[in-house]
Automatic annotation (TrEMBL):
InterPro entries: L-lactate/malate_DH, Lactate/malate_DH_C, Lactate/malate_DH_N, Lactate_DH/Glyco_Ohase_4_C, Malate_DH_AS, Malate_DH_type2, NAD(P)-bd_dom_sf. Residues 6-151 form the Lactate/malate dehydrogenase N-terminal domain. One of its GO terms (biological process) is malate metabolic process. The gene is mdh. This is Malate dehydrogenase. The active site is at residue 188. Its EC number is 1.1.1.37. NAD(+) binds at residues 12-18, 106, 113, 130-132. CDD domains: MDH_chloroplast-like (cd01338).
Length: 329
């Protein structure tokens, strides 16, 4: 085992996603069995007592990969020297809300955390945002961290990506391992576009394999895009274990690399590829290697996809303008 622990900061550590996420990171699911991790956990003051209980449990697991745990409510201290920051802490929506309704409640959290990351994180910091509305919160954090390259911020659309794979696997009766090159475009919201036109099932085109435009447009896309709301309706609380699992998948692939015959969906800063407004944080198909990502280029976008991508991008532009108006960026 290497000796220098990787410092992983997690915000909202006493929340429901935190309760799944911390144990997965600590046991090596993120960086593997040979890399020790130091957890640096941020919470608001009233939640620190509960977090102390979680730390007792983390210690009681005696994970060989857990080098230490620090907790606190000051982002300047908790982000000190962090190599990876997973920004989960934010209020979840409840029944009847859209994720964008959380902008004013949650946006301000990400200004202070962006500044603290800017001033205290390690030079190799990568920041993954799970707290909603994730894309625009990532934009707020990045804008408030001018010394950190914009490419180091991403927002979580991996949960949507995994949901899309799962739905397709069920429809076609194939294992999830046979599905590759799934793409989520746009916002982690009901306007997102899960793209089957470039996905593959056992090496063949997924849209052709489905062969049913009505199922694609009227069942698959809304099921994936509205899965978060369906879970809230059923559980009375928003997705947590699946969100933690996707947060791990996304960070692991970012740091350790995506598979050679596949790509992943990540919301990253747009360079204008595929006509997506430059500067917003929008989901794309990306390949990752050693902590860097590249948008997959050269995919043909048909009229149906163009309309869907444009609608989700328009929503992200509106969210950007709203947080500008609120003085957050
Ligand atoms: P939760 O309410 O159980 O936990 C949130 C935690 O964040 C709480 O413990 C709270 O005290 C803490 N917190 C609030 N403000 C904070 C701050 N300034 N600094 C540090 N911690 C702070 O919520 P949850 O179910 O864990 O969800 C967290 C967020 O993740 C929500 O916004 C939810 O909508 C979002 N989410 C995103 C995805 C995704 O795919 N992107 C999936 C599921 C949930
Ligand atoms: C999800 O997709 O499950 C989360 O973003 C929670 C939500 O509000 O839908």
């Amino acid at each position: 085992m290497s000796t220098t622990p990787v410092k992983v900061a997690v915000t909202g550590a006493a929340g429901q996603i935190g309760y799944s996420l911390l144990f997965r990171i600590a046991c090596g699911d993120l960086l593997g069995p040979d890399t020790p991790v130091q957890l640096q956990l941020l919470e608001i003051e009233p939640a620190l007592k509960a977090l102390e209980g979680t730390v007792m449990e983390l210690n009681d697991c005696a994970f060989p990969t857990l080098a230490g745990v620090e907790i606190g409510s000051d982002p300047n201290k908790i982000f000190d020297g962090a190599n990876l920051a997973l920004l989960v802490g934010a209020r979840p929506r409840t029944k009847g809300m859209e994720r964008g309704d959380l902008l004013s409640a949650n946006g301000a959290i990400f200004t202070g955390q962006g500044k603290a990351l800017n001033d205290h994180a390690a030079d190799d910091i990568r920041v993954g945002v799970t707290g909603n509305p994730a894309n625009t919160n990532a934009l707020i954090a990045s804008t408030n961290a001018p010394d950190i390259p914009k490419e180091r911020f991403s927002a979580l659309t991996r949960l949507d990506h995994n949901r899309a794979i799962s739905q397709l696997s069920e429809k076609l009766g194939v294992p999830v391992t046979e599905i590759k090159k799934m793409t989520i475009w746009g916002n982690h919201s009901a306007t997102q576009f899960p793209d089957l036109f470039h996905a593959e099932v056992d090496g063949k085109n997924a849209y052709d394999a489905v062969g049913d435009q009505d199922w694609y447009a009227d069942t698959f896309i809304p099921t994936v895009a509205k899965r978060g709301a369906a879970i809230i309706e059923a559980r009375g609380a928003s997705s947590a274990a699946s969100a933690a699992s996707a947060t791990i998948d996304a960070a692991r692939d970012w740091l350790l690399g995506s598979a050679a015959d596949d790509w992943v969906s990540m919301a990253v800063v747009s360079d204008g590829s595929y006509g997506v407004a430059e500067g917003i944080i929008s989901s794309f198909p990306v390949v990752t290697k050693n902590g860097d990502w590249e948008i997959v280029q050269g995919l043909e976008i048909n009229d149906f996809s163009r309309g869907k991508i444009d609608a989700s991008v328009a929503e992200l532009v509106e969210e950007r303008d709203a947080v500008k108006e609120l003085g957050l960026i």
